[in-house]
Amino acid sequence: MILEHFKPFNGQHCETTATGSLLYQLGIELSEPMLFGLGEGLGYIFWNMKIMDFPFIGGRIKPDALTENICRNLNLKLEVHETTSVNKAWLNVKQNLDNGKAVGLKLDCYHLDYFANKIHFAGHYASIYGYDNEFAYLNDTNQQERVAKTSLKSLELARNEKGPMSSRNRSYTIHQKGKLPDRKDAIKQAIHRNATDFLNPPIQNIGYKGIYKTSSEIQKWFKTSKNIKKDFQTSASLMENGGTGGSLFRNLYRDFLKESEEILESNEIRKVVHEYDTIATLWKTVADLFYRIGETENFKYINEASDILIELSEKEKTSMEKLKRISV
Asked: InterPro entries, from UniProt (predicted)?
């Protein structure tokens, strides 16, 4: 059973791609940067746990929140289903598909047949638009073939995986519940809330404070790493190519601001767009330095990356303060 007239979303980030394809079914067509911005998606986290092979550097808000924010800002109804039963989980998805509704899924991409790079990451998203006796048909990011298929068994394993960022077979659908809000108001509210959250992190390893903390944490990481090449080069690859749109999501947010300043006709936002150009370039430099650290195992590149992270912390704080004032 394949949904007729399903339009795959052309995206770089998994959650915006999955949610964007569900919005297509409602006749809502927005760019990926606009979805990311309306989802109040920009963030930062440096996370390290003993069970992790190496620290995680993330550039967006926590999983699931992006779609929740998009739906709130567009006055849409989000229906979420979670269960510990793999049978109930599949039945819920199947019923929606049989009723003509595409479904968003949260997965551990490690189990998906079409993923060549086998890394456990349970915060991946894709939408499902069909199935048969053997396969599920998914809309994933451009990097992952966009229109992909995986065995039903692999899908079951991916949905039911445990560990960091995982959920209990989470699936979701989106429904219209009224008139779409004024686009200008939605954009301003999303910018304001994103800036407020970024500037007020609940703990020191999140937001601009987290970027600053990372400047010293990477020094500890280098000294304790059991495989410097693998750790730092994998991290660099995830920062640039792991569905972030490059520069740890800063390219996506810059493009959202660019689209927003045209809609809002705001010279102030236009100035911040240029600031995020610089910020994005600096994040690319950090990723390049991480790769060089892996190649050379030379501590001087750690120091260079550390200095840039301190600079980035201040620049991102300043830019978000401006956006918070502008969007009031």
From this structure: BtrH_N (IPR026935), DUF4872 (IPR032369)
**Are 212 and 311 a contacting pair, CB within 8 Å?**
no
pLDDT surpasses 80 at 29? yes
Residues in the chain: 328
Q: Where are the domains of the chain?
A: 14-30+76-176, 187-327
Long-range contacts of 224-230 (CB under 8 A, 24+ apart): 225/54, 228/293, 228/294, 228/297, 229/294, 229/295, 229/297, 230/54, 230/294
Q: Could you report the per-residue pLDDT of 233-260, keeping only the tens digit for each?
A: 999 999 999 899 999 999 999 999 999 9
The burial of 151, by beta-carbon neighbours within 10 Å (0-12 exposed, 13-18 middle, 19 or more buried), is given as middle
**Tokens 């779409």, located at residue:** 180
**E strand residue ranges, 162-217:** 171-176
Phi and psi angles of residue 227, each rounded to the nearest 5 degrees, phi first: -150, 85
Domain 14-30+76-176: which CATH class? alpha beta
Q: Which residues of 256-281 are buried (b: 16+ CB within 10 A; e: fewer)?
A: bbbbbbeebebeebeebbebbeebbe
Q: Read off the tokens for 235.
A: 């991290």
Q: How far apart are CA 124 and CA 15, in angstroms?
A: 7
Q: Look up residue 52 and give its two tokens.
A: 């992790």
Rg (alpha carbons) of the chain, rounded to whole number: 20
